[in-house]
Design brief:
The complex is a heterodimer of chains A (about 400) and B (about 240).
Chain A: H1 2-16, H2 19-52, E1 55-60, H3 66-74, E2 77-82, H4 91-95, E3 101-104, H5 109-114, E4 122-125, H6 133-158, H7 179-187, H8 189-200, H9 203-215, H10 219-223, H11 229-258, H12 275-302, H13 306-316, H14 321-330, H15 336-339, H16 344-354, H17 361-387
Helix pairs in contact in A: 1-11, 2-7, 2-8, 2-11, 8-11, 8-16, 9-11, 9-12, 9-13, 11-12, 11-17, 12-13, 12-16, 12-17
Chain B: E1 2-11, E2 14-24, E3 29-33, H1 40-47, E4 55-60, E5 63-64, H2 69-75, E6 76-79, H3 91-101, H4 106-119, H5 135-147, E7 153-157, H6 165-180, E8 184-189, H7 192-198, E9 201-206, E10 209-215, H8 216-223, H9 228-235
Parallel strand pairs in B: 3-8, 3-9, 6-7, 7-8
Antiparallel strand pairs in B: 1-2, 1-4, 4-5, 9-10
The chains are: A mainly alpha (about 400), B alpha/beta (about 240).
Chain lengths: ~400, ~240
């Protein structure tokens, strides 16, 4: 038992002194919450801003169409009245940089309107410019078209003609991918990040304590110490798990602090970000971290060189995503057997915890016990690998 | 005392050692001499109980290595051929780690480390991380690590590899110190000149077979030449003996 502690402490101190290990262990858990929370807040702010804020544009000739101007104001447009001096090119209003969207209503509009003639309005904007000018110009165009159509419909009705005659098709757009939906998609990455960190956190330790040890020639003297192979391997796996746990703690702390800042309640989504909930997620993840530590150690033990181990393990850390992807692509409904699959069970349960659904105790225990059992098997395998003389390579 | 009897070991059809037998006495320094790939490291690995022989026995202090591996491991100090120290730990931490694994702790361990520091003259670099150490400094750390539990049997795999003259002399003094303290020292080498200054007995091994066991003095008689390198070459079957 004391040999186990000796190995565990030595591996932790040794790897704490390695900058590469520290970066790979903590970069993801430090940056993950910042990026996710920042992205969600940004998208939601924009989405909510679009709905609330008035759409600004400049107007030449407001006096030529007072009724239309009033209607536009009612439609939440912020109008700035400007003058177009005689003889100047209307383009200069935009190219000079003074305005970004300009609507020009000709002076003869009222006269032609009364005579039932068509008048051409001009919207000037620069589509190559960054920002929302293009979007506002097309919004303005749509608003003007619907105003024009309403007037046309009234005119036909006055003359006793069915307005449907001139509009055989009515297109109704239904864009499902609203900004709010995009924020939700990003939110669904939270469980994925939590799973990824469980595997990433111990990545370099799993290599350093196995392949690294052999490559630096310290494995042979280590194996000739009067210590059971089980204590050696358990110490190494435990050190891998300690780093993964630290990484996970950092990530969860980041989400715990960050998620309340995202205005999710404004799109009607309630997220349970209580301390107790995060504690449950942490406890739920402990068997998976053990599983990941043992799995990484087993695979790294087979690699002959550091580089080879890095290649294997880079593929391996994608493994936790596979069951999640599979069930999403196949559109399979969550059921009890999924709880038995490491990483899949955890991802469903974390989603349940966060969205405040009732998480069944049976599901929880199935996930914890099944993952622990598999982790124990992998640990047994790792000890067996280290009991063979082929381990010296 | 180390006794090896008819030891054989194959690696995937290749015979690494073939019926190797020899005895290394206490209070004597025994050299395991042979060209690269002769089976020196394999023999030492069997003695350190990290690999198992296919047949034959290896005994240390009367204990069969694989019957009581932990007992044997506690009574031997092993230094592998490329020193294998942890680069991010200081010299002292490297030694302390192996001391703890040997079951030492507290003041007893720290006192032992202090004594080794003096014995091996490592004070100047004791608390620096071993990354960037010279080969001589690394060998000292590895040696201290192997000796931390005061073993009666010391196995050194090519200890002089990459050492300069000063470091080689320092190593020789240490090895002779161990002999004087009653240890059984077994080391492997492929350089005849080193052996001459370092050891009392020689085991020449080539192609996995033992070609000679005996004292250094007797070696010249058996080979019929005063030149040790010539003697080694002829006994190892590497060249024809000059007429």
């Amino acid at each position: 038992m004391s040999a186990f502690v000796t190995v565990l402490v030595k591996e932790c101190i040794d790897n704490l002194r390695d900058r590469r290990t520290l970066v790979s262990t903590f970069a993801l858990s430090l940056l993950g919450p910042i990026i996710l929370v920042g992205l969600m807040s940004f998208i939601l702010d924009r989405a909510l801003g679009e709905q609330d804020d008035a759409i600004p544009f400049s107007l030449v000739g407001a006096a030529n169409a007072p009724a239309l101007t009033a209607w536009l104001r009612e439609q939440n447009y912020a109008i700035t009245d400007i003058e177009l001096p005689d003889g100047t090119d209307p383009r200069t209003l935009v190219t000079s940089g003074a305005n970004d969207v300009v609507l020009i209503i000709p002076a003869n509009f009222a006269k032609r309107f009364r005579a039932g003639q068509m008048t051409t309005f001009t919207i000037v904007y620069d589509s190559s410019r960054m920002g929302s000018a293009s979007r506002r110009a097309s919004q303005l165009e749509r608003a003007l078209n619907s105003y024009a159509r309403a007037i046309g419909v009234l005119r036909l009705q006055v003359r006793g003609i069915d307005p449907q005659l001139i509009q055989p098709i009515l297109v109704h757009e239904l864009d499902v991918a609203s900004s709010a939906e995009r924020a939700l998609a990003i939110l669904s990455m939270v469980p994925y990040f939590i799973l990824l960190v469980a595997f990433m956190g111990g990545f370099y330790l799993a290599i350093d304590t196995t392949t690294g040890e052999r490559e630096h020639g310290s494995l042979e003297p280590l194996l000739s110490q009067p210590v059971s192979r089980a204590s050696l391997v358990l110490g190494k796996i435990a050190a891998t798990c300690v780093f993964a746990l630290a990484s996970l703690l950092l990530l969860l702390a980041g989400f715990y602090v960050g998620l309340p800042w995202v205005p999710l309640e404004r799109i009607g989504l309630s997220l349970d970000v209580s301390f107790g909930n995060f504690l449950m997620i942490f406890v739920l993840m402990i068997p998976l971290i053990w599983f990941a530590g043992a799995l990484l150690t087993v695979v790294a033990s087979f690699a002959r060189t550091y580089k080879e181990a890095q290649t294997y393990l880079s593929f391996l850390i994608m493994v936790p995503t596979l069951p999640i992807l599979f069930t999403q692509l196949m559109g399979i409904e969550a059921s009890l057997w999924m709880m038995l699959v490491p990483s899949l069970g955890q991802s469903l349960l974390i989603q349940g915890f966060l969205t405040n659904e009732a998480v069944s105790g049976l599901d929880l225990w199935c996930s914890v016990l099944s993952t622990s059992l598999l982790a124990a098997l992998l640990t047994r395998t790792a000890i067996w690998i280290y009991s063979r003389e082929q381990i010296l390579g | 005392m180390i006794r090896v009897d008819n030891l054989s070991k194959q690696f995937g059809g290749v015979r690494a050692i073939d019926n190797v037998s020899f005895v290394a006495q206490d209070q004597r320094v025994t050299a395991l001499l042979g060209p690269n790939g002769a089976g020196k490291s394999t023999t030492l690995r069997v003695l350190a109980a990290v690999i198992r022989a296919d047949s034959g026995t290896a005994e240390i202090n009367g204990h069969e290595v694989h019957a009581a591996p932990d007992l044997v491991r506690a009574s031997i100090g092993v230094m592998p051929h490329n020193s294998g120290v942890y680069a991010r730990l200081s010299a002292r931490e490297n030694i302390r780690y192996f001391g703890r694994l040997q079951g030492l702790s507290g003041d007893a361990l720290e006192e032992r480390i202090e004594r080794l520091m003096d014995q091996l003259e490592m004070r100047a670099f004791a608390d620096r991380r071993t990354k960037g150490f010279s080969q001589g400094q690394k060998v000292k750390v590895a040696l201290a690590r192997a000796l931390v539990h005061d073993p009666r049997h010391v196995l050194l795999d090519e200890p002089t590899n990459g050492l300069d003259v000063m470091a080689t002399r320092a190593l020789r003094d240490i090895v002779h110190g161990l002999r004087a303290a009653g240890c059984c020292v077994l080391f492997s080498s492929h350089i005849m000149q080193e052996v001459e200054n370092l050891c009392d007995d020689v085991v020449i091994i080539a192609g996995g077979r033992v070609c000679y066991t005996g004292t250094l003095g007797n070696l010249r008689v058996v080979a019929g030449t005063a030149d040790l390198e010539e003697a080694f070459m002829s006994l190892a079957g590497l060249t024809q003996v000059h007429p």
